[in-house]
Amino acid sequence: METTIKKLNKCRLCKSNNYNVLFIKYGYELAKCNECSLTFLNFDPDDEFFSNYYAEDFFNDPGIKHAYSDYEKEAESLKNSFKFRVDILSKYNSGGNLLDVGCATGAFMEVASSRWEVYGVDVSEYAVEQAKKKNLKAFAGVIKDSPYINQIFDVVTLWDTIEHVSDPLETLQQLSEMTKQGSVVALTTGDVGSTVAKISGKYWHLYNIPQHLSYFDKNTITRIFNESGFEVVEIIYPSIQLSLDYLLFRLVTFYKIKYAFSFYKLLKKTGILKPNLNINLYDIMLVVAKKV
């Protein structure tokens, strides 16, 4: 039976219905707003989509969700990049409490706990279960339903998260209510205005459909922060440390290279995919903003 894709039919940022469809991938329309220039997936996911998509097989992907073959192992590689992010945040705020939105299994929380009292929230029940096994304070669900909704945080992070939420403006506005003047909100997300994105076109590796719902550039990410009561103070393009295993897995699953997945599994068994690599295509931006 063919699945019906429920369309959003409006921009996720400015809510305008004046947009153009750039291309269609897997039946989903990738569109660009003619009013604010946000690129977005014309898809209106329901709660069931989020609970089903970010289940255990997202973090231990058999090759169907363009995610992680083994997130817990990859998290050990990511921790090296997370240490750099902690240093960046510490320039602006080096104490108090921190909320990690989209905390997954808690890898960043573990690293950040050396500087802040850490809390996490994620829509994935599976991921939060893993975080709790590490004695981390995490909630499975959305921000508005979390026990943290009435707390005030010194630092909030959204690593590779803002592109996954249905309403990114509402998310940042909620976080504005949960922060005080001078609090820091930091995120990472793909830059659809980057050279790599433009050259790659519809084959850009971050057109990860249907999980990525919004695609920002420096202008649109600055606008959404401004409209939520924050001022962007830094945008950088740091490298990220990833395992060769993850990179090859993403390559063969995202681009659906014929027969390559069997070859990947063969290489994985040999153990030669364990080394980590520092990767930087300058198409993922780290954005730091302060509450004004």
TrEMBL record:
Q: What's the protein name?
A: Methyltransferase type 11 domain-containing protein
Q: Tell me the domain of life.
A: Bacteria
What PANTHER family does the annotation carry?
A: METHYLTRANSFERASE TYPE 11 (PTHR43861:SF6), TRANS-ACONITATE 2-METHYLTRANSFERASE-RELATED (PTHR43861)
Which species expresses this protein natively? candidate division WWE3 bacterium RIFCSPHIGHO2_02_FULL_38_14
Q: Which CDD domains match?
A: AdoMet_MTases
InterPro entries, alphabetically?
A: SAM-dependent_MTases_sf (IPR029063)
Database matches in Gene3D superfamilies:
Vaccinia Virus protein VP39
